[in-house]
């Protein structure tokens, strides 16, 4: 197996993973988004292939700034009737009616200045093409028409304009009424953010578009369990309530206190993926290797039907010198769930093979990731070039 980190860097990386999973208790799926303030402060962000920070980063965690969060008092939650949408114009695509009961609707909030929004547009376009008339995606922005139409003419990736890349409807919010009815009512303050509205007109799911694949497919198929989703949200609210204390314990390396709190919470709310992933990261950082190894397989089982979570687990294991057989199992399963159609997940599978020193498999899968990605993510293309260069160097040395 390739060693990509020395012991001190491994320690920093694992602590950052614990931080990341803790943050996931306060953000849907732990995925990145932006507000107008953060975008102005940092500028557009690149289209990252991972939700977890790269192991080469030297940034130190700042968990002490994470506050405890009280249970949600939002006026819009999963299971509520979908609010009315108020739009002034559809800039791209035909108008839709939420009362049209023969299809599922996805209302996604975005802005031209939002880097994560732009990064996710190819993914949403793929989903729109995949689901066809069964689903109507509507991207809603509070910006004016001239800003959006100008954006659509700008270069995106692969020699295409944004108008070429975006294959779903775009609409203009009417005096922010739709954003108020959805985003504000649901307590969402970062974009991109998507709402799945089922055929019966009720909100089925709220979150980052990068995690929408499985719930959307289930809503379309009629297999979505709304009550289970509501219970999961309630569990997340309980986890948010201890995030502040847990963060301080992790920062202070008070591992036993953090683990005891998580154990008590699990006894109360039952098995939970985010909770188990946080526990696993703390066990690894605390040097409790046997307990971590036992839990790691359990985490994969909890995530067995969640391609995004499996992808994240596989990537984290592969980039922190973990159990590569488990990483391969998780990455392979994530790829199966997405039917070899997700470039980011295939990129992870290729990385696992690379870390296992199987360059032939790494190159084969990475080429597939590049073909699917179409040049949208330069990191995926760069990885293929790296693998090929190492293969050529290896051949010349033989």
Reconstruct the topology from this structure.
Elements: H1 7-23, H2 36-42, E1 87-92, E2 104-109, H3 115-131, E3 135-141, H4 145-153, H5 162-165, E4 169-173, H6 177-184, E5 193-197, E6 203-207, H7 213-221, H8 226-241, H9 243-251, H10 255-269, H11 273-285, H12 289-302, H13 307-318, H14 324-337, H15 343-355, H16 359-373, H17 378-397
Parallel strand pairs: 2-3, 3-4
Antiparallel strand pairs: 1-4, 2-5, 5-6
Mind explaining what this structure looks like?
The protein is α/β, with parallel strands linked by helices. It folds into 2 domains: 7-68 and 242-397, Serine Threonine Protein Phosphatase 5, Tetratricopeptide repeat, CATH 1.25.40; 87-223, Glutaredoxin, CATH 3.40.30.10. 53% of the residues lie in helices and 9% in strands. The two termini are 20 Å apart. The chain is built from 17 helices and 6 strands. The protein has helices at 7-23, 36-42, 115-131, 145-153, 162-165, 177-184, 213-221, 226-241, 243-251, 255-269, 273-285, 289-302, 307-318, 324-337, 343-355, 359-373, 378-397, and strands at 87-92, 104-109, 135-141, 169-173, 193-197, 203-207. Strands 1-4-3-2-5-6 form a 6-stranded mixed β-sheet. The model is unreliable at 1-14, 23-31 and 37-71 (pLDDT under 50). The longest helix has 20 residues, at 378-397.
In the CATH hierarchy, what is the superfamily of the largest domain?
Tetratricopeptide repeat domain
CATH class categorisation of the largest domain: Mainly Alpha
Number of helices: 17
Residue fraction in strands: 5-15%
């Amino acid at each position: 197996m390739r060693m990509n980190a020395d012991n001190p860097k491994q320690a920093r990386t694992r602590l950052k993973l614990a931080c990341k999973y803790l943050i996931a208790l306060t953000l849907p799926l732990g995925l990145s988004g932006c507000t107008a303030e953060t975008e102005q402060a940092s500028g557009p962000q690149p289209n990252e292939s991972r939700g977890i920070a790269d192991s080469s980063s030297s940034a130190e965690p700042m968990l002490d700034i994470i506050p405890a969060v009280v249970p949600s008092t939002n006026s819009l939650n999963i299971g509520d009737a979908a609010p009315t949408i108020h739009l002034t114009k559809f800039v791209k695509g035909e108008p839709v009616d939420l009362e049209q009961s023969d299809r599922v609707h996805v209302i996604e909030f975005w802005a031209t200045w939002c880097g994560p929004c732009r990064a996710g547009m190819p993914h949403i376009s793929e989903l729109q093409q995949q689901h066809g008339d069964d689903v109507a995606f509507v991207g809603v922005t509070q910006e004016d028409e001239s800003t959006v139409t100008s954006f659509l003419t700008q270069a995106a990736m692969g020699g295409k304009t944004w108008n070429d890349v975006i294959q779903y409807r775009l609409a203009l919010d009417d005096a922010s009424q739709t954003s108020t009815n959805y985003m504000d009512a649901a307590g969402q303050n970062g974009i991109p953010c998507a709402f799945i509205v089922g055929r019966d007109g009720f909100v089925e799911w709220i979150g980052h578009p990068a995690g929408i694949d499985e719930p959307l497919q289930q809503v379309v198929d009629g297999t979505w369990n709304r009550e289970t989703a509501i219970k999961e949200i309630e569990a997340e609210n309980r986890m948010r309530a201890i995030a502040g204390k847990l963060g301080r314990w992790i920062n202070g390396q008070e591992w036993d206190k953090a683990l005891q709190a998580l154990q008590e919470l699990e006894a109360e709310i039952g098995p939970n993926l985010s909770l188990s992933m946080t526990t696993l990261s703390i066990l690894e950082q605390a040097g409790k290797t046997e307990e971590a190894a036992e839990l790691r397989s359990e985490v994969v089982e909890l995530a067995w039907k969640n391609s995004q979570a499996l992808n994240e687990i596989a990537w984290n294991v592969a980039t922190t010198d973990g159990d590569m057989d488990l990483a391969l199992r998780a990455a392979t399963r994530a790829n199966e769930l997405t039917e070899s159609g997700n470039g980011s997940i295939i990129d992870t599978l290729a990385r696992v093979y690379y870390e296992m020193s199987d360059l032939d498999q790494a190159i084969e899968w990475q080429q597939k990731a590049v073909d699917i990605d179409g040049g949208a993510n330069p990191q995926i293309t760069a990885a293929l070039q790296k693998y090929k260069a190492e293969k050529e160097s290896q051949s010349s040395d033989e």
